[in-house]
Amino acid sequence: QVQLVESGGGVVQPGRSLRLSCAASGFTFSRYGMHWVRQAPGKGLEAVAFIWYDGTNREYAESVKGRFTISRDNSKNTLYLQMNSLRDEDTAVYYCARVNPHSDYWGQGTLVTVSS
Amino acid sequence: QPVLTQSSSASASLGSSVKLTCTLSSGYSRYIVAWHQLQPGKAPRYLMKLEDIGTYNKGSGVPDRFSGSTSGADRHLTISNVQVEDEADYYCETWDSNTRIFGGGTKLTVL
Predict the structure, then answer these.
(1) What's the burial of B72, exposed, middle or buried (CB within 10 Å: 0-12/13-18/19+)?
(2) Is A103 touching B (CB cutoff 8 A)?
(3) Which residue of A16, A32, A111, B73 is 20 to 30 Å from A86, comparing CA positions?
């Protein structure tokens, strides 16, 4: 069955970097777009970054543009989110999800806490 | 880009029915909407995809109690015979080209 497992979250100081990973299994990863969605404490869902099935096109929320980079390695069935210049407001649970074109499978999420 | 509007909260008695609504902004009434369920400590769960003509396709394993309907720009998620385990946050989602948009979410309380 489809599985998405995020990793890489943790506590990080403002201004530092973190890289999240999402390991996919149970489907042909290279055929689907993927995206990262986050939920800050007490807030709703926010789509953060999207990448096409082949990595040729990417889209970012204005709140992270220029600081976050989404990428993928189809040979490893893995999605990444490189987060630089982290801010307090980036504190959230980060989910990866398969795009079909709606989000049809989600991971359990990984918590990122930005705090000094 | 479309905007999705949801009521912040709803409640339903055990065994009753509840209809949650997601409204598409003006000019986007034909967009497809997906519904998701979020519960603490669990992976979000895709429930269904709902089209402008009212047809819907549910995700794998979604109980029959969950159904969808459409009225103009409104996309409804109806839960019949509400159970305790249905207490959750429900979000609608749509997309425009490469951009995905979520509604603000509705917190469902089961009484």
Answers:
(1) exposed
(2) yes
(3) A32
Residue whose C-alpha is closest to residue A74's, from A24, A36, A1, A2? A24
Q: Please indicate whether, in this complex, the C-beta atoms of A46 and B105 are within 8 angstroms of each other.
A: no
The pLDDT value given to residue B98: 85
Chain A residues closer than 8 Å to B42 by CB: 108
User: Which residue from B55, B48, B52 is spatially nearest to B77, judged by alpha carbons?
Assistant: B48
Q: What is the pLDDT of residue A68?
A: 98
pLDDT of B52 reads 87
Decide if B106 contacts B8 (C-beta within 8 A): yes
For chain B, the first-to-last Cα distance in angstroms comes to 36
Q: What is the pLDDT of residue B74?
A: 96
Give the pairing type, strands A110-114 and A10-12.
parallel
Q: Which residues of chain B have pLDDT under 50?
A: none
- Which positions in chain A touch B61 (Cβ < 8 Å)? none
- Residues pairing with B110 in the sheet: B12
| Best mutation target, A22, A38, A45, A93, to test chain B (most B CBs within 10 A) | A45
Low-confidence spans in chain A with pLDDT less than 50: none
